Amino acid sequence: MNNFDERLQRLLERHEALTESVEHLARQGEEQNGRIDKLFAIVQAHTTQLQQDAENIRGLARIAEIHERRITELEGGQNGEEGR
After folding, report:
1. Rounded to whole angstroms, how far apart are CA atoms 79 and 32?
2. What whole-number distance in Å separates Cα of residue 40 and Cα of residue 6?
3. SS3 track for the chain
4. Residue 26: pLDDT band by 50, 70, 90 thresholds?
5. Percent of the chain scored above 70 by pLDDT?
6. Per-residue confidence (pLDDT) for residue 28, from 0 to 100
7. What is the pLDDT of residue 76?
8. Cα dihedral 21, 24, 29, 35 sign
9. Maximum distance among all Cα pairs of the chain, rounded to whole angstroms
10. Which of 21, 41, 40 is CA-nearest to residue 29?
11. Which residues of 29-52 are buried (b: 16+ CB within 10 A; e: fewer)?
C-alpha cells in the first residue's frame, strides 16, 4: 500500500504542476490577445489614415491636371495670338 500512496502522491503533484502550467499559459494567452487587440486597433487607424491620404493625393492630382490644362490652354492661346 505504501507504493500505491507514493504513486498517488506523485500523480497529485504532477496534476498540480500541470494545472499551474495551464493556468500560466492561459494568462499568457489573455495577455497576447490584449496586445493583438491593441495592434489591430493601431493597424485600423493607420489604414483609415492611409485611405484618407490616398484620397487627398488623388484630389491633388486632379487639381494638378486642371492647372496643367489651364497652363497649356493659356500658352496655346498666347502662341495662337502671336502667330496672327
Report:
1. 68
2. 50
3. CHHHHHHHHHHHHHHHHHHHHHHHHHHHHHHHHHHHHHHHHHHHHHHHHHHHHHHHHHHHHHHHHHHHHHHHHHHHHHHHHHCC
4. very high
5. 89
6. 98
7. 87
8. negative
9. 122
10. 21
11. eeeeeeeeeeeeeeeeeeeeeeee
User: Which residue shows C-alpha cell 484630389?
Assistant: 59
AA letter at 47: T
Lookup result for grid cell 493601431: 42
pLDDT tens sequence across 41-66: 999 999 999 999 999 999 999 999 99
C-alpha cell read off for 13: 503533484
